[in-house]
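User: Quick sanity check before I run a bigger batch. Here is a single chain. Can you write out its predicted 3D structure?
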Amino acid sequence: MLLASYQQNLIEAGCDEAGRGCLAGPVFAAAVILPPTFDHAFLNDSKQITEKIRYELRHEIELKSIAFAVGMVDNREIDKINILNASFLAMHRAVEQLSPVPEFIIVDGNRFNNYKNLPHKCIVKGDSKYFSIAAASILAKTYRDDYMNNIANEYPEYNWLSNKGYPTVKHRQAILELGYTPYHRLTFKVKNTQLKIF
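Assistant: Done. Predicted structure follows.
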């Protein structure tokens, strides 16, 4: 059973990202403030539910949240500042759009760069423990999938409609045969040995 909040005294936003392990495309993050009474039987870590349910949940989250926002850092910025810092920056870009302004942030994972002077708590597997982080994971994942679907037809050989930029065998093989596209993260190297599945 997921929990409504980490603490009860401050306006709390949950944050999560999607696309950190991809070879192509941006990293997306979302920040969500839910009402204290929010509850949903199916809301969980976005990786644990089907695509159809994720999009149904996105609609409900956007309808019932007090505030939500999505931030993005593209592949060029990722190459400049590295993927970890890009993930934090995407979360910052989401949080800065929220109104009301949150007073406390809970973040999926074990690391986070401070956002202004807001207190925060990192929670490992937080997207399966707190509704707001789970909601953020849904929004980040679905908005990123929409982005990858939109650019997939520009470079169909890389199979982004299916892999969404993640390092599948087919995606890595396409990079080795055809090279990188303008959407690829050039600091994420692909070698022949990575094609083997262990």
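Helices lie at 51-64, 75-81, 83-95, 131-152, 160-163, 169-178.

User: Great, the batch can go ahead then.
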